[in-house]
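Human: Respectfully, please carefully check these tokens:
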Amino acid sequence: MSSDGDLINPADFRSLAFEVSLHNDTTNTALQEGKRVYGKKRSDRSDEDLSIRVLELAPTGMVLEVPQSSCSRGHRIQIKLSTLNAPERIEIEALAQVEQWERMENGKERIEVRFLRHDSKLWSDLLAVFSARQQEILDFFHAVKGD
């Protein structure tokens, strides 16, 4: 129960949250700390949403929602991923290749990446934490429904 007396705490339904940055080795551009970086020059534009969202995790890669014009199919990107609300912080760096790319209705782009180089032990640990959190949420729903 939350501190204000609510029966349901919204935090009970939150999946893992991530902080993500990427560097496109093919174009030498990056998305870091909410800014576009061109080589060594940071953009001062503040009118675009530069957030990166993790949509799916897979055994050999992931699916991300990225800002427009971040990368294209075939590009090699370096990804830095950190958990924000896991029991223990997990930080992973990976070199990946963009396998699929599509423009989304919200103006962002959906990319599917395959790892070329990463710490497979850390990635397995992250997948286990993510899976456990998803199972906790499902178990809660089943308990509420009386299954």
